[in-house]
């Protein structure tokens, strides 16, 4: 009790610092008591950390007159506070993460390390996420058909449902757009009458295999329920991998299962997606299911002994080895794709690549070595970070 009283007495002066020094003792208190906390995880021995420190400090000065509780710039010595660094999966220095209302946002900061860029990033994060309209044509004109969108209709803004949508939108502002129509008279037939729950629909982008709208029918007043529903729609089970986002995807720390296909092949993508939705909904936090252009990713295909002529091809990259789903048509066999993923988690794929199928007679098959990982090489560039030694993520 005395320790917490001491911390609370020191907190006002502490937060007046340009960059707040966080430790294992005060980390949770600071991120929970401020809307935005921009944290620099560093190590004193890391030259990239030393290069960033004065830049981070100068950028923080642009926000020193912000409203108390709105934005805090902070730093964590990851060597001295390893428990905090480990909790947030910091495996390179410096790492910049944004915390919003006590929760870490999905994407860490990965852009230019300049005063101007850091300032612009935080200014952008402080902007309103939900676009509000009182006129139907204006809402329709603002909608970007190339983005996944959530469109809501509310009688007014003074409701727990509106507040929940506003808070959820802050976490998925980069992946999706959020549009809201206000007023029953402004949006007749769309805004429910007073006393009824608001209306919310998910509109997939025009690139989606199934572009049909999906209405929200759950408990709008429960923040976590709404957030999970938005996450499931905004961050789908199957995403596209490109050379531009591959580094970012590797940082999620999950092995990849990739469908390599031709750019215009929508049939195999739908078959792959349907199989994952049907067989692997519980594996979202265990493997990243991705679709990639096999023409662009020729190199990983060659590691598997495949070429463009063999597309579509499914493979797992564990960041140590690559494993081939031997026959794409087997995806139609119930349970086959799920077995492939579970065999990765159990170690069976790795074992069988070393020794062949489990022997029936007791004769040991000769050792073989699976192809090395290709996407492991697309992890963060050493010219921007000090990478901690990791044998496998």
TrEMBL record:
List GO terms (cellular component aspect). Answer: endoplasmic reticulum membrane; endoplasmic reticulum-Golgi intermediate compartment
Tell me the GO BP annotations in alphabetical order.
protein folding
- Where in this protein does the record put region Disordered? 352-380
InterPro entries registered for this protein in UniProt: ERP44, ERp44_PDI_b_2, Thioredoxin-like_sf, Thioredoxin_domain
Stretch forming the signal peptide: 1-17
Q: Where is the Thioredoxin domain?
A: 5-127
UniProt-recorded name of the protein: Thioredoxin domain-containing protein
Species name: Caenorhabditis brenneri
Q: What is the organism lineage in this UniProt record?
A: Eukaryota, Metazoa, Ecdysozoa, Nematoda, Chromadorea
């Amino acid at each position: 009790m005395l320790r917490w009283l001491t911390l609370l007495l020191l907190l006002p002066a502490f937060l007046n610092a340009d960059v707040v020094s966080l430790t294992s003792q005060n980390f949770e208190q600071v991120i929970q008591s401020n809307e935005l906390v921009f944290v620099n995880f560093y190590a004193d021995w890391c030259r990239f950390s030393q290069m960033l420190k004065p830049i981070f400090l100068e950028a923080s000065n642009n926000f020193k007159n912000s409203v108390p509780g709105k934005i805090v710039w902070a730093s964590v010595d990851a060597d001295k506070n390893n428990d905090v660094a480990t909790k947030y999966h910091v495996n390179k220095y410096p790492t910049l993460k944004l915390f919003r209302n006590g929760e870490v946002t999905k994407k860490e900061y990965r852009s230019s390390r300049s005063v101007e860029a850091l300032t612009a990033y935080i200014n952008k994060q402080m902007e309103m996420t939900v676009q509000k309209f009182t006129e139907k044509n204006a809402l329709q004109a603002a909608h970007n058909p190339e983005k996944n969108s959530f469109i809501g209709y509310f009688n007014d803004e003074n409701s727990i449902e509106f507040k929940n949508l506003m808070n959820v939108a802050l976490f998925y502002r980069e992946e999706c757009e959020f549009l809201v129509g206000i007023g029953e008279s402004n949006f007749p037939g769309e805004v429910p009458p007073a006393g009824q729950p608001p209306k919310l629909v998910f509109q997939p982008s025009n690139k989606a295999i199934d572009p049909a709208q999906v209405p929200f029918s759950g408990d709008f007043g429960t923040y976590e329920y709404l957030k999970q529903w938005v996450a499931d729609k905004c961050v789908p089970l199957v995403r596209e991998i490109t050379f531009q986002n591959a580094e970012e995807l590797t940082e999620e720390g999950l092995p990849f299962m990739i469908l390599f296909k031709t750019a215009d092949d929508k049939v195999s993508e739908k078959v792959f997606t349907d199989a994952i939705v049907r067989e692997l909904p519980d594996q979202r936090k265990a493997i990243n299911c991705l679709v990639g252009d096999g023409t662009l990713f020729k190199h990983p295909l060659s590691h598997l002994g495949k070429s463009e002529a063999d597309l579509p091809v499914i493979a797992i990259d564990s960041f140590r080895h690559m494993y081939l789903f031997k026959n794409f048509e087997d995806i139609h066999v119930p349970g086959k794709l799920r077995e492939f993923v579970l065999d990765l988690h159990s170690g069976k794929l790795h074992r069988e690549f070393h020794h062949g199928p489990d022997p029936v007679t007791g004769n040991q098959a000769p050792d073989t070595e699976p192809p090395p990982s290709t996407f492991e090489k697309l992890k963060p560039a050493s010219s921007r970070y000090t990478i901690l030694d990791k044998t496998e993520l």
